[in-house]
């Protein structure tokens, strides 16, 4: 079967959305640094709600990018980590993050030029 993310019915499209959406990309990026518990991850991904983080983790786990390790302790301990596919995805995402961060002066200048035309 050939996949084409530009085709509306292709199953690769939702996976791309899970990875490249705001919370998905930040979650994968944060887990690139190593396994985290839910609340650690929530603190690392500043601004994400508990509900959105839970939904994001479920989607990424379903797509095979995140591994959920629930340990039978009292209180229960759940750690999240990247799978091999998740690590590969995170490395490519990290390159994009580095590019965006390093080119922000140019982006800010472009935004300023654009906004001044509208004023």
Automatic annotation (TrEMBL):
Q: What's a Gene Ontology MF term here?
A: DNA binding
Quote the Pfam families the UniProt record gives. Answer: HxlR
Write down the Gene3D superfamilies for this protein, in alphabetical order.
Winged helix-like DNA-binding domain superfamily/Winged helix DNA-binding domain
Task: Tell me what organism the protein belongs to.
Answer: Lentzea tibetensis
State the name under which the record lists this protein. Helix-turn-helix transcriptional regulator
HTH hxlR-type domain location, by residue? 10-108
UniProt keywords (A-Z) are:
DNA-binding, Transcription, Transcription regulation
Specify the taxonomic lineage. Bacteria, Bacillati, Actinomycetota, Actinomycetes, Pseudonocardiales
